[in-house]
Design goal:
single chain, about 250 residues, mainly alpha, Arc Repressor Mutant, subunit A, 2 domains, 12 helices, about 70% helix, elongated, disordered C terminus
Length: about 250
């Protein structure tokens, strides 16, 4: 009777392989180095995986599964939010309404879970970006990016149809900006040894995505410049303070 595969060995092999893939890339990593790193034999490796590519593909499928589940959960959460609180209006942003703050908090929480997953599997993303040349995974990162851009664009179009967001923004461009930001963040993560404050990242991302760089209540730059120009060219006027009873009273 064949000896059953040890599940602990499988976990150890995956951990050791992820380290080797980052060091040497998918093509450069050797099965004997992977097994030596966790004190197992090549025979033990083949009890669990048919090849190092199969091992990497299994880990990658897990990442895709997690991110896909988070994407579906985001859609469901947004639907529940708008059903309970209604659609946002322009004044929600300008006034910083409670409804707006709830939405930012909800999306920041969802973003944090995505960032946590990206941090946990940053080595896998690193291999996809820099260590998969010459393998079947060589262009997969960008295929995943394109798929995610289309998913975000579809969701944005759905929100546009329900008047939950601006109708004058290209869904495809919006998706590219959002997904491109996360692609750059995961690249940065792959070089980090110390975990950053991902909760702060998530909150700041939501503020940037929804408000841009303008302070709440601030006028757009053209309006400020026009007002300043009028003030410089207009005749000087006496201030209201100068006309107050205290300063205008005759001796």
């Amino acid at each position: 009777m064949a000896r059953p595969a040890d599940p602990n060995a499988r976990t150890a092999l995956i951990s050791a392989a992820r380290v080797e893939f980052v060091k040497k890339g998918l093509r450069g990593a050797r099965i004997e180095d992977i097994t030596a790193a966790c004190g197992l034999s090549k025979g033990a490796f083949y009890l669990h995986f048919s090849s190092k590519e199969a091992l990497f593909g299994e880990v990658l499928a897990r990442v895709q599964e997690l991110l896909g589940a988070l994407s579906r959960e985001r859609v469901e959460c947004m639907e529940r939010f708008f059903a309970e609180y209604g659609q946002l209006e322009a004044k929600d942003l300008s006034e910083g309404s409670q409804r707006y703050e709830r939405l930012v908090a909800l999306e920041a929480e969802l973003d944090l879970r995505v960032l946590e997953t990206m941090w946990e599997y940053r080595d896998v993303m690193h291999v996809l970006l820099r260590g998969s040349q010459g393998t079947q995974f060589e262009s997969l990162f960008w295929v995943m990016v394109d798929q995610e851009v289309e998913r975000v664009a579809r969701e944005f179009r759905r929100l546009q149809r329900s008047c939950a967001t601006r109708g004058d923004v290209s869904p495809s461009l919006f998706g590219t900006v959002i997904v491109g930001t996360y692609a750059l963040l995961v690249q940065q993560m792959s070089h980090m040894r110390q975990k950053p404050d991902l909760a702060s990242w998530a909150h700041n991302l939501q503020l940037l995505f929804r408000e841009g760089a303008m302070r709440r209540g601030a006028e757009p730059a053209p309006a400020r410049l026009k007002r300043a120009s009028v003030a410089r060219t207009s005749p000087r006027r006496t201030s209201a303070r100068a006309l107050s009873p205290k300063t205008s009273r005759k001796p």
